[in-house]
Amino acid sequence: MSFVKPDGTCFTFYTETFLGTGTNSIILLYGSRALKIPKIRDITTMPEANRDDQEYINYVNCKMLETEKAVYLRVGRCDGIAECINISEDGILLAFYKRGDLENYIKIEAEVDRSRKARWILILIKTLLHFHKSKVLVDDMALRNLLITNDLALKMIDFGQCNIFPMDTDINAVNENGMTAQADIFHLGCLIYSIVKWKIYEYDLFLHGWTRPLLSDLPQTNQLFCGDIIRKCWSAEYSSMDQAYCETHKGLEQTIHEV
Fold this sequence. Notes:
By secondary structure, the chain is of the alpha+beta class. Helices cover 37% and strands 15% of the residues. The chain has helices at 48-75, 102-108, 114-133, 181-197, 227-234, 241-256, and strands spanning 3-4, 10-11, 18-21, 25-30, 33-38, 84-88, 91-95, 136-137, 146-148, 154-156, 163-164. The chain has a 5-stranded antiparallel sheet. Helix 3 (114-133) packs antiparallel against helix 6 (241-256) and helix 4 runs antiparallel to helix 5 (227-234). It is globular, with a radius of gyration of 19 Å. The N and C termini lie far apart (53 Å).
């Protein structure tokens, strides 16, 4: 199976510059950095009967990368977002984080201490607050979309499924086919639970018709570190990310600096 770069040249996953692939994009090594390009399959090698469907998939993948470019331009630099070095017709040039994503890190590495967990949770809260202040809904919040730097900081990636709204939008009142600020906050709770329990937990509201489950159908959070934060994310007790940050940052900062 071969794919096409934006410049028209073909390549396969066996090339030495190939780093990884997702549903809609491909990551290539570009010097010491990572170049994200749309996942465009070479339709010239396919049977005629399959070309129209694949051409549409290629089009959607290109549109999603354009959305991601627009997100990086809107949100700018933020400590909790992967460093965007350049945006061009070729794709998105990003810093390369060799430690990989948090989902795999949890699977293979020893559990980090409470101070590190608090640091990660606080940066996730700050980062989602930044998105919402930038009038962007994230949607695809998952452990696989959190990369780990050499100094064990978290960086959020993959914004092709985001929705961007005018800057005068009340982000807490928007409902884009089920995608809301409250849905983002719910998914934030799943990320925090995974970090606290050091196990992979995901409950994608999109796969459940955007219907929030009962708390009794979710894992217990009683007596957990950050259990109240998780519960409030899941039960919509935070009216906004502003409230979530205001109610949590002092306690988390205190935990970060505990010896």
